[in-house]
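Annual report, structural modelling task.

Input specification for the protoporphyrin IX containing FE complex:
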Amino acid sequence: MGESVHAVTTLPTARPPGCPFDPPAELTEAQRHGPISRFTHFGGNPGWLITGYDLVRAVLADPRFSSRRELMNVVDYPLPPAPPGEFLLTDEPQHGRYRKPLVGRFTVRRMRLLTERVEQITTACLDAMEEAGPPADLVTSFAKPIPAIVICELLGVPYEDRGAFQEQIDAFVGGETDENKLLAAYTATQDYLAELVAAKRADPTDDVLSELTGSDLTDEELRGVALVLLAAGLDTTANMLSLGTFALLENPAQLAALRADPALADRAVEELLRYLSVAKSFMRTALEDVELGGRTIEAGTTVVLSYHTANRDPGRFADPHTLDIRRQSTGHLAFGHGIHQCLGQQLARVELRVALPALIGRFPTLRLAVPAGEVDLRPETADVYGVRSLPVAWDTEPS
Amino acid sequence: MSRPRLRVDRERCIGAGMCALTAPEVFDQDPDDGRVLLLRAEPPTALHAAARLAAGVCPSGAVTLDEPESGGV
Ligand code: HEM
Ligand code: SF4
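The model returned the following structure:
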């Protein structure tokens, strides 16, 4: 039916009842009609929604699609360009100028060297949980602190500042929905990072930020880069840890398999990334008219790319709505694709590969402390999906 | 019989590390600039599948695999 184009108006706001890990029914339905649908953005602006794996990947690899925020045609007022250094929202050549000095710091090899440190941090969190005894909120005792401590070390946040800094960034990246509070937290974080950059320039230590002071980036740009690392790296990893645990607890056979054979951890992590795709969707704007999936995307039109739905494309992954930690999930889009593909993915992999097996190994009787239906899920409108809290319990050894 | 041959384009590489993760025997990343280093341009048969996968998942199209004319299927 070349004439009829499936249409979706605004992003759906709810997941299917009882299926907290699946994309909203409207998106799965759209995919059934074809990889590309007509879409109406938040402000009423006409656009497109892409749910098919191949097409999402094609757009992400195509330099005719832009990531620049000021080009996003989604509301009826102009959006400001990204502040200096916030390279997630830029195109080449600006993007490369920021990303290039960073990549040497985030290689597979360098991140693997961090494994031991991530193990220590994880052990400390698990010790504290065990000591306090059940029940525990997995978000505050495990999922948030691990990536927060890791990023503090990476950025070189001095030990004595960490408590205050973590509270601040928590409000900034933690799914806060009150606009005023969000702005206040954003400003406070920016101020702190500006101080940190000045301190590193004066007195470099062994961390990413200090190393970057040796590049040609200005202080303002460095602050922006640090902000992107926080904004992109914390909440995503924290939610993969908490939602990943929730998903394993809801799939006891998979959980048992992983617990019995830690060698499955690498595959399990890739599969959880695919299945959960907590960074659900991103946008790109066509810089010129582009033919895509038999449609013409007109210059200036913004497309929404649903990474989550694309990762559930039956044309790419057999039985896509089943969590199967033994499958080969490589090639998933949970970290995106193309020039913006996640800079911190190797770090995220190390954190997930260390922390999840350690958690289920330490607590063989780990379980939800509330019925699954009562777990406090983030609203679908949040940028990053996940849980607000995850009450868990376990049996303690009679002493 | 010629083997599949790999080429990498360091200018295109964005240092995502998918290659080094997927086929560590074939690819590494430069410790300074994070970009791809090709360890074996003509990997042995046992590594063909991993090399092919790495070329397929590279996010920037920096890895290409020239498959020799196979004549067969
Ligand atoms: C499991 C955890 C993570 C997930 C699911 C995730 C997901 C993503 C995705 C989907 C993108 C691409 C956005 C786009 O297509 O426009 C991205 C970009 C990015 N991520 Fe991650 N990320 C994670 C962890 C991290 C960590 C730990 C860091 C750093 C410490 C990080 C830093 C970045 C940066 C800097 C970018 C922007 C790259 C660019 O624009 O070139 N991420 N991430
Ligand atoms: S996968 Fe591609 S972009 Fe990533 S390091 Fe290897 S060659 Fe570079």
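The mean pLDDT of chain A is 92.
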